[in-house]
Amino acid sequence: MSTPENSATSKLNALNSQQYILQLEQELADRKRSEKLHHALFKIASIDYNNNNLDSFYQNVHNIIAELVYSKNFFIALYSEEDFSLTIPYFIDEKDEHDLVGRKWLMGKGVSSYVIRTRKAQLLDITQINKLIARGEIEEVIGSTDFTSWMGAPMISANFLHGLIVIQSYDKDIIYNKDDLLLLNFVAQHVANAIDTVVNSQQRKESQLKMAKQHRLLEQKNRDLNRAIKQLNITQEELIQKEKMASLGGLVAGIAHEINTPLGICVTGVSHLQEEYKIVKRSVDNKSITELQLMNFFEDIEEVLTILATNTQRSASLVNSFKQVAVDQSSNEVRNINVLQYIDEIILSLRPTLKKTQITIDVECDSTLSVNVNAGAISQIFSNLILNSVNHAFAKGAKGRVLIEVYKKKESIIIRYRDDGIGIDDEALKLLFEPFYTTKRGEGGSGLGTHLVYNLVISAIKGKITVKSQVGKGLAYLIKFPMA
Question: Of the chain's two ends, which shows fewer C-beta atoms within 10 Å, N or C?
Fold first, then answer.
């Protein structure tokens, strides 16, 4: 027989059993929800980024989120800090017929902008939105406004705001709650990490493509540059050769000019002797010649012979000097030279140019110093240095001095060349050995003189050359090359 106490106990047991069942059901539901969440996050992390197709990526994200929460109305908006704008790359909505994909708008006071500004997930309905409008937090709602529930969560990775995910419901029976919001916010963070991976992968591929393109361009530019350098070297060699030939041509002109003087004296002496001979012959033929006349004729003969001997020897000396310098300048033969004598021969070959100036050249060198060297290179070096001083260091008609010192130091020959001309400034000094650089571009200067000197010192005699100068204090070269 049932008593009131037994009845109460039975009811209590039934209630406890029902609560236990509900608790178990809730735990099972939570467990399933948790499993679904873990499964969804795993799928998000496992999305294939290799194809770098963001449209496909966003579609996959939508499908995965749909397994967790009602999301027939879903969009993703990307935020740009550069211009404070939002762009929609993915948009699905039951009622809004406008195609918002690709649309971009500046941050304003809409609901999505509110999520971006606060950097917090928001769960809203129309009533709450109207309150935000009343407080001035937002001003308008873009798109359909007859939704029953709206959720938006910022996508933040490493404190960088990528944008937001928005889900909304038009069904009065589907109202999102705080658990849904927490879930969406949690998923949004993982989506942000995935976007980082996709963006970084895209940037890497774009960077690799850009680098490959730049590499191809650099290779082409390198080939073009090598061709240009090769052509420039050929042209430069041709110009240097022309410079040598021009120098040789000047040397030949100098020979003609210098030999004309002693030969002219010889011609004058012979002509005078011929006239005297005719006079004496007539006197002999007439048998009217006197002893005094005959003695004077002999004196004339002796004087003319002396003049002829002196000037023919001088001509022979000039020819020998010019010949040796000319041969040296057109060849690369290494031979033994007496340094002082050779420098004197070079200066002698430049006499036609030097005698038009008031420039003196002094040479200080041991008369016994000799060296095996590329004589043509030495000739070209001194000729160009002297001519540079003549053409650039002194004003026309100005007095000047060039000092050449040559001496032996250990196993090297040291050449110090300096003039007391106008000098050059630091900028010009830096460019002095550059090809085609000249301070007299419009006055016939080729700009190859000092460049030729530099190349000859470095290549032909295996030496070193340095230069110093100050404006108003002349120019000084130091050349050092091995004796062997």
Answer: N
CA distances from 478 to 45, 156, 172, 385 (A): 73, 69, 98, 12
d(CA 247, CA 244): 5
Round to whole Å and give the CA distance between 148 and 172. Answer: 6
Instruction: List the helix and strand counts (H, then E) for the chain.
Output: 11, 13
pTM comes to: 0.42
Contact 75, 95 (CB under 8 A): no
CA neighbor of 130 nearest in space, from 108, 145, 152: 145
Amino acid at 370: S
CA distance 460 to 162: 67
Structure tokens at 355: 């005698």
Give 240-271 pLDDT, tens digit per residue. 566 556 555 555 655 666 666 677 777 777 78
Angle (deg, nearest 10), helices 339-349 and 291-329: 100
Neighbours of 132 (CB within 10 A): 17
pLDDT in tens, 142-179: 766 788 999 999 999 888 899 999 999 999 999 999 98
CA dist 388 → 253, 380, 439, 448 (Å): 19, 12, 11, 11
Question: Number of C-alpha atoms within 13 angstroms, CB side, residue 194?
Answer: 25
The span from the CA of 178 to the CA of 158, in Å, is: 24
Say how far apart CA 187 and CA 383 lie, in whole Å.
Answer: 85
Inter-helix orientation angle 178-285/291-329, to 10°? 160
Return the closest-CA partner of residue 342 out of 406, 258, 410, 259.
406
Stated as kind and residue range, the H or E segment containing 74 is strand 73-80
Sheet containing strand 358-365, edge to edge, reads 358-365, 399-409, 412-419, 475-482, 464-469
